[in-house]
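Project outcomes to date are best conveyed with an example. Our students and postdoctoral researchers have been running inverse folding experiments weekly, and each run begins with a structure described purely in tokens. The record below, which covers 160 residues, was selected by the lab manager from last quarter's runs and is presented without edits.
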């Protein structure tokens, strides 16, 4: 992560050296966008935190560890689609679920939809991209996540 910060600082410094006025203008624009979108993201983070607090890990793992792989993938995809969670939380949760017996294929469906499909972020996306583009992006992302899960099942020998 520090490498990303260093690269960003370096790029910003080069931009500042090349054109000071444009760089300052761009930083001001970015700051305004960040302050505009921050309340919505903060609300989403609070909502997700409450849901994760109320739903125990055992309920999640028992639901996803089902012997019916097709049903487990659909349930995991649905749960991932309606949940919002940053990667630093999602991947350790995936490790916990793996220890609880959830298959790689189901974990793949869950984490991929978690990162790519945004039911909770729909109002924010709609405001920036429009309803049609947001719905289309979410549908395409959902099917890509299912495809990734199936490929993961083949790779890990969970689908013969």
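After processing, the design step wrote out the following sequence:
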């Amino acid at each position: 992560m520090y490498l990303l910060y260093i690269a960003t600082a370096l790029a910003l410094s080069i931009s500042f050296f090349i054109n000071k006025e444009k760089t300052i203008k761009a930083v001001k624009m970015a700051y305004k966008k960040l302050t505009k979108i921050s309340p919505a993201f903060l609300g989403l983070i609070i909502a997700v935190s409450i849901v994760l607090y109320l739903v125990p890990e055992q309920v999640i793992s028992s639901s996803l560890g089902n012997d019916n792989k097709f049903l487990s993938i659909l349930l995991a995809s649905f749960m991932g689609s309606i949940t919002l969670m940053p990667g630093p939380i999602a991947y350790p949760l995936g490790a916990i679920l793996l220890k609880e017996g959830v298959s790689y294929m189901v974990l793949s469906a869950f984490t991929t939809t978690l990162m790519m499909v945004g039911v909770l972020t729909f109002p924010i996306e709609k405001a920036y991209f429009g309803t049609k583009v947001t719905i289309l992006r979410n549908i395409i992302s959902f099917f890509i996540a299912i495809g990734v899960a199936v490929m993961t099942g083949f790779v890990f020998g969970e689908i013969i």
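The longest helix spans residues 20-54. The chain has eight helices and no strands. The training component of this project remains on track.
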